[in-house]
Amino acid sequence: MIKPTAGTIGSTSVPMTGAFERWLTHFRENPARQQRSESTVSWDAPMLLDSVTRQAFIRSFQRFELGESGDGRHLLAKAALEGDPVYLAALEMLVAEEQKHSALFRRGLDHLDALSLKAHWSDSVFVRLRRMLGLRTELGLFLIVESVAMGYFTALAERAPDPVLRGIGLRIALDERDHIRFQIDRLRQGFLRTPRVGRLAVGLVWGAIAAGASTVLAIDHGSALRACGFSRIEYWRHGMGEFSEAAISVLADPGTEPLGPLE
To answer: Closest Cα to residue 246, out of 163, 158, 185, 157?
Structure first.
């Protein structure tokens, strides 16, 4: 089984006042942590995967590179309307980190001697859907996608049969665990005035979307997951477990103190 992502949510908390100031500090300091992580990867190590395994990771990395490459322009425009400059500045830095993930997948494709994708149906559908929605709903979609994908990054970091690919997985997983917590903190604020029955309805809708997202990810990346020793069914169950933990953290009691970043 894929190991639970220890500390993805956790119990660390900070008072509501100043929550996003702490996130802003985290994102400003994170490049140094990212550089330390990347410095441990032997980027020039030879690629020794067999052709079938190599193709599996090529297909997987191509899709993730495309999915992480957006500039966040529409999301940031919606966030700007909320009138919280600290949150907006922190969100801009999170978007920049996602773009760095795209560059890391591109570096992985270079290691695999492969080209990028120009488009993929799953990315196109997700982009079109989220652009039609308000900020809270779009952030909910991001929470769903990031939580169901967290197990992939963990599997890559722990079990990929190539040291460069493991290094990329670890580097991205370190960011994503905090990205999930950041989305939870903002979504809790967004649901503070939503009655319990309304939050329950949202949870049901989110669950249906998460089941679909987990299925798409398990199918699209199934060969790469098998190369890491995990079946599609195992991954689907794990992705839904990660999503459930995140959704409960948002919807069960939005008045709970914000999580803040893991240090």
So the answer is: 185
Burial of 139 (0-12, 13-18, 19+ CB in 10 A): buried
The CA distances from residue 233 to 3, 20, 151, 216, 225, in Å, are 14, 37, 13, 12, 11
In the chain, the largest separation of any two C-alpha atoms, in whole Å, equals: 56
What distance in Å separates the CA atoms of residue 127 and residue 44, rounded to the nearest whole number? 34
Number of H helices, E strands in the chain: 10, 0
Note the pLDDT of residue 126: 57
CA distance 235 to 242: 10
Q: List CB contacts of 144: < 8 A, sequence separation 6 or more.
A: 206, 209, 210, 213, 243, 247
Residue with tokens 């969100």: 91
**Residue keyed to tokens 């997700």:** 126
The predicted model scores a pTM of 0.88
Give the model confidence (pLDDT) of 44-87 as tens digits: 999 999 999 999 999 999 999 987 766 678 889 989 988 899 99
pLDDT band for position 109 (cuts 50, 70, 90) = very high
d(CA 132, CA 129): 6
